[in-house]
Specification:
With about 260 residues, this protein is of the alpha/beta class. Helix content is about 40%, strand content about 15%. The protein contains 10 helices and 9 strands. The strands form 3 sheets. A 4-stranded antiparallel beta sheet has the order 7-1-8-9. The protein has a 3-stranded parallel beta sheet with strand order 4-3-5, with helices on both faces. Strands 2-6 form a two-stranded antiparallel ribbon. Helix 5 links the parallel strand 3 and strand 4. Helix 2 packs across helix 4, helix 4 packs across helix 10 and helix 5 runs parallel beside helix 9. The longest helix has 22 residues. The chain is globular, with a radius of gyration of 21 Å. The relative contact order is 0.22.
């Protein structure tokens, strides 16, 4: 129903018609009421096993709507936006971290590693795309930025400091708090290539995490969504944990947002 209501804002008539055909018969007014009424009223807190079942069923139905509205001529991406109940402008309330998505994001991640000696050899053996120290810094300063993740060993940080003005604004500068300054280089490279995703709350307190492609199917996207939401909510300051967030929305690249019942998380 949410998807149908928002289709009126789509200017492309053929796209709107395709979405309505894909959705099929109209959904009931409250399709998730049976799953979330107890949590919404606050009268009963579900045990972990029951909460997981409710979350999976809720996500399956929401993802059906997301995938039905993805009618463009290419494999659209699917993401989740979490509107946190924190003030990201305050240092003590900033939320950032990493999450390993069970099924990855469906795209090739290029990893650059700033390291020397044995660590550099280990990074190459683990599959890093770019490895080096001073020479790689020089390439970055010359404009080379064909990578999505950057890792560094502690001994390479002094040389990497010269590239901070280039990597910093793009969110690529390695930082111990983000877990991108590593000593176990091989394991870090393998995780980055396998689907480890970094997330960070923007100034408005919104965290966006890509879950994969529409072609993944509802089951794989739901697994990724559960892992992403657990990581994001677990990264909040202690005093916010256990409290509902303001809003959680699923959407495809060009589709409307589908609101989840945030009381389930």
């Amino acid at each position: 129903r949410t998807c149908r209501r928002r289709l009126v804002f789509l200017s492309n008539k053929s796209m709107r018609a395709a979405c309505l055909r894909a959705l099929g018969p109209a959904l009931p007014r409250q399709p998730f009421a049976a799953l979330s009424s107890a949590a919404r009223r606050g009268r009963k807190k579900l045990d972990p096993a029951a909460a997981r079942v409710a979350q999976e069923a809720h996500l399956q139905e929401a993802l059906r709507l997301v995938r039905a509205c993805a009618v463009r001529g290419y494999d659209e991406g699917v993401s989740v936006d979490v509107h946190l109940n924190v003030d990201a402008k305050r240092t003590e309330e900033r939320v950032r971290g990493q999450v390993m998505l069970p099924h990855g994001q469906g795209k090739t991640v290029r990893v650059a590693v700033f390291a020397r000696g044995a660590d550099a050899d280990a990074a190459r053996a683990a599959g890093a795309d770019l490895v080096g120290a001073e020479e790689l810094v020089a390439e970055v300063l010359a404009g080379r930025l064909d990578f999505e993740r950057v890792l560094a060993t502690p001994d390479a940080l002094p040389a990497l400091a010269k590239a901070a003005r280039v990597l910093g604004p793009k969110g690529l500068m390695p930082n111990p708090k983000r877990g991108t300054v590593v000593t176990e280089v091989a394991a870090a490279v393998q995780q980055a290539k396998a689907g480890q995703v970094e997330f960070r709350a923007q100034n408005q307190g919104v965290v966006m995490v890509g879950l994969g492609k529409v072609s993944f199917g509802a089951d794989r996207l739901a697994d990724n969504a559960i892992a992403a939401l657990a990581a994001v909510l677990g990264a909040r300051p202690d005093r916010f944990r256990g409290k509902p967030v303001h809003r959680i929305t699923l959407s495809s690249t060009n589709g409307p947002g589908i609101d989840l019942d945030h009381h389930l998380w």
